[in-house]
Amino acid sequence: MKLTIDRNALMRALSHVQAVVERRNTIPILSNILMVAEGERLSLTATDLDIEATDAAEASVKRAGSVTAPAQTLFDVVRKLPEGSEISLDLSENRLSISSGRSRFVLPTLPASDFQTMAKEAAPTKFEIEAAELRRLIDKTRFAISTEETRYYLNGIYLHHAKGGKGNVLRAVATDGHRLALAETEAPKGSATLKGVIVPRKAVAEARRLLDDAPETVTVEASDSKIVFRIGEAVLTSKLIDGSFPDYQRVIPKENGRILTVDNKQFKDAVDRVATVSAERSRSVKLSLSAGKLTLAVSHSETGQGTEELEADYDSEPMEIGFNAKYLLDVASQIESEEARIEFNDAASPARVLDAKDAGAQYVLMPLRV
Amino acid sequence: MIVGGGKRGVVSTCCYVARTYGVRSAMPMYKALKLCPDAVVLTPRMDLYVKEGRRIREMMQRLTPLVEPVSIDEAYLDLSGTEALHGAPPAISLMKLQKAIESELRLTISVGLASNKFLAKTASEADKPRGFFALSIDDAPAYLGPRSVRVIGGVGAQFEKKLNADGIRIVRDIQKIDVKTLVKRYGETGLWLHNCAFGRHARQVDPYSERKSVSSETTFNEDIADRRLLEDFLWRLSERTADRAKHSGVEGRVVTLKLKTHDFKSLTRRVSLNEPTQLAQVIFRVAKPMLAREALGERYRLLGIGLSELVDAKADGIDLADPTALKRAKAERASDKARGKFGGHAVMTGRGVRIKIASEKKNHEA
Question: What is the pLDDT along chain A (370 residues), one digit of tens a residue?
Fold first, then answer.
């Protein structure tokens, strides 16, 4: 294998795939990136056995071939070479030499035949979706993904076709039991067969990274066990979480009668300020609602007290309810509208948060028991 | 007489005669019986002890509201300012209490009277059984001086080792060292050591002193390697721990699994929950994977499960990721009620029944 390639093009492709590689690996080949030079392209593939990412860049190939080299070192070397420089890669006697200008590096390699690639399988579901919409579905839900290992089926985003209020939708849902985030978009053509897949957290993060550099539309393919995102030339394939996502519809309160409307920015800032004195662990903030007014209060025997008063649109019975400050902030950060609408039932029941600017998003928060 | 469980259980307690043979509480039963082969072994009757313990506590509370229970049969009483109320100094009130407990419950107790908790505890040990010992703060330095550093509650085996290595064996060794040197060597603990060595101890009698954890454990008659069998025991222990938490009105944020291997190596695994719990099903759910990671063929002699970082229990919450959780919590509460009314085995889960049958067959459980 021998080729020359533009440093920025190589950097871009490497940054698309290298994060898939786990930092600590007991199997050396899993620390490596597969490089295949063929035609006028260099393609790069990284895997952790659950997720595989591939991207390609234009190169002038003098001798076709393939090899694997340590992902982290390769990435760091290329990153540190000056922008706009030209890089030559040359494989001889199992060593990969990287040269550019006056810099020269030699990296150890492992044979390409040892690299584990994922078996390709037929995807019964295939649809195109606007990159911006897929980004939106991810951004509005990923913060609610659970990290609890015992409930592995919550460690991802549940993506599925559903009947929404105004027709068919593609819906993303994530929950950790304390909060739930739901975002949906008009169902893309071909997505109707997507019964429901749980995309693991890491795959979500990798797909989101690729979407930063995406063309206008991307392709999603799904089978019972895998999901594939085709984003430009990059291809991300991930195993799905094998489990059943809870029946989230039952926990979304649809008829909460006490409606609070409050300036979202003011609300967010106020929560952030009072939370300064909350205990590290519970981060509990008490919301007191009364006519036209919302009071946020934190009171802790050891860490102190803080209160904030906000003007708000509220005309139901006064009530008090507690929430985890971080959960409130996470949701407020996703609201695009100037005002957040929060619907309450009582101090022990979940509240629903809506965004006037994005009818396709909703959030559910469990109160803390105060 | 030795009180303890099964042939593989441990000694819960024993009479003073057995103690002269070297039997101690928490000692494995086989060891105790080797030391004292003629001992009569009785199985503990926890319900009875709890009931009698409560009666004693009530009698104590008639003397002062400031009663801080330490265990089922031990408590600190703050009798400051009760002289006018009872028309007698604390020593007389305590003697009356001792007599009353003896005549009403036919139980002997030992009393230690002093100006703080540490000295009172030391005094209560001085004249056991059926003792009465008063220790004044002025006599304390001389009384404590020749005793092992272990007399200071809080100096455990590990710390004793360290102190010994530093040339400190008895309390007098501490008394002789300048307080600044102690602080430099042991930090805040040094200051505390210094104060204790002279019988000074600032901790108040706290009737609301919080329990730090609730737990239950069992030593098997025969070592167990089988994961499913261990899980059955885990369920039983989860229920017991949950019962204790429910009884005390607390719930915990941390679940700790404890295992002891056949060759007495202890290991603990813990997990923090997002929301504190007192429910057996939740304890079991988070403990099961921890157990699964350890039950890979190793033979275990002991299994325990505990809750810590306790807070006051509140109503069960809704779990957004588990729409039926509230229902199951209600089911557990209902079965608790039934068990409270009709006895421990009135309502059991399938798993609980399996272990009950197994233990009845082999009289397995310690």
Answer: 999 999 999 999 999 999 999 988 888 999 999 999 999 999 999 999 999 999 999 999 999 999 999 999 999 999 999 999 999 999 999 999 999 999 999 999 999 999 999 988 889 999 999 999 999 999 999 999 998 877 899 999 999 999 988 899 999 999 998 899 999 999 999 999 998 999 999 999 999 999 998 899 999 999 999 999 999 999 999 999 999 999 999 889 998 999 999 999 999 999 999 988 876 666 789 999 999 999 999 987 777 889 999 999 999 999 999 999 999 999 999 999 999 999 999 988 999 999 999 999 999 999 887 6
Count of CB pairs separated by less than 8 Å, A with B? 51
Q: Which of A142, A252, A165, A138 is nearest to B323 (CA)?
A: A252
Which alpha helices (DSSP H) does A212-323 contain, by range?
264-274
User: What is the enclosing helix (H) or strand (E) of B240?
Assistant: helix B227-248
Contact A177 B286 (CB under 8 A): no
Residue B265, Cβ density class (10 Å: 0-12 exposed, 13-18 middle, ≥19 buried)? exposed
Contact B321 A349 (CB under 8 A): no
B328 in reach of chain A (CB within 8 A):
no
Interface test with B, best of A364, A369, A370 (most B CBs within 10 A): A369
- The residues facing B312 across adjacent strands are B250
Question: What are A117's two structure tokens?
Answer: 């690639």
Domains annotated for chain A, with CATH where assigned, are: 2-114 (3.10.150.10), 125-250 (3.10.150.10), 252-365 (3.10.150.10)
Identify whether B125 is a catalytic site residue: no
Tell me which residues of chain A, numbers 49 to 78, contact chain B at a CB-CB cutoff of 8 Å: none
Which of A148, A247, A281 is opposite residue B323, by nearest beta carbon?
A247
HSE-up of A81 (CA within 13 Å, CB side)? 25
Q: Which domains does chain B have, with CATH numbers?
A: 2-42 (3.40.1170.60), 46-109 (3.30.70.270), 110-209 (1.10.150.20), 213-365 (3.30.1490.100)
Which strand (E) or helix (H) includes residue A15? Answer: helix A7-17
- At residue B320, what are phi and psi to the nearest 5 degrees? -60, -25
Distance from CA of A41 to the nearest CA of B (A): 46
Report the DSSP pairing between strands A60-63 and A2-6: antiparallel
Show residues of chain B in contact with A251, CB under 8 Å.
Answer: 318, 320, 323
Say which residue the tokens 């739930």 belong to: A180
How far is it, in rounded angstroms, from Cα A80 to Cα A75? Answer: 9
Among the partner residues A154, A176, A369, nearest to B317 by beta-carbon distance? A369
Residue B215 near residue B241 (C-beta atoms within 8 A): yes
Q: Distance, in angstroms, between A300 CA and closest chain B CA?
A: 14
Angstrom CA distances, A290 to A310, A314, A315, A364, stand at: 11, 7, 7, 22
Residue A232's identity, in one-letter code, is G
Chain A residue with CA closest to B292: the answer is: A150
Residue in B285, B289, B320 closest to A180 by CB: B320
Window 245-274 of A: residues touching B by CB (8 A cutoff) are 246-248, 250-251
Q: CB-CB: which of B289, B314, B323 is closest to A250?
A: B323
Q: How far apart are CA B109 and CA B130, in angstroms?
A: 5
CB neighbourhood size of B21 (10 A): 15
Distance from CA of A365 to the nearest CA of B (A): 9
What DSSP character marks residue B341?
H
Chain A CB contacts of B289 below 8 Å: 149-150
